[in-house]
Amino acid sequence: MVDDLLTLCSRADKLLVLGLNSADGRDRTHHAWATAHTRALLRYLAAHPLRSVVGGFELGNEPRSEKYGFRLTGAQLGRDIVTLRGMVREIFGAAGG
User: Fold this and answer.
1) Which pLDDT score, from 0 to 100, does residue 32 have?
2) What is the DSSP letter of 34?
3) Which of the 8 DSSP states describes residue 73?
4) Do residues 17 and 57 lie in contact, with contact meaning Cβ atoms separated by under 8 Å?
5) Nearest CA-CA partner of 37 in 48, 49, 47, 24
6) What's the mean per-residue pLDDT of the chain?
7) What are the pLDDT digits (tens) for 9-54?
8) CA distance 75 to 67
9) Distance between CA 63 and CA 94 in Å, rounded?
10) DSSP class of residue 10?
11) Angle, to 10 degrees, between the axis of helix 36-47 and the axis of helix 74-92?
């Protein structure tokens, strides 16, 4: 599916901004964001021949919804953004892409 999105964006000459769900794998007790799936996706994208169509990432605020069984503070969501930024820089390079 990711390959299809990358191909579509390449053919349409558009950039892809991927929305990430920070509730994925979150520790329900300590509310720490488990980043393994996100890190694997970033590595896949960075190694992909069409990586140039990856325009950026956004981290959803879904954990603020009660449907996940917990609410996070703005401070925790801010730490998650910093974590994502660090992963993008580490995997894509200092320029982020």
Assistant:
1) 77
2) -
3) -
4) yes
5) 24
6) 85
7) 999 999 999 998 877 777 666 677 888 889 999 999 999 999 999 9
8) 20
9) 28
10) H
11) 30
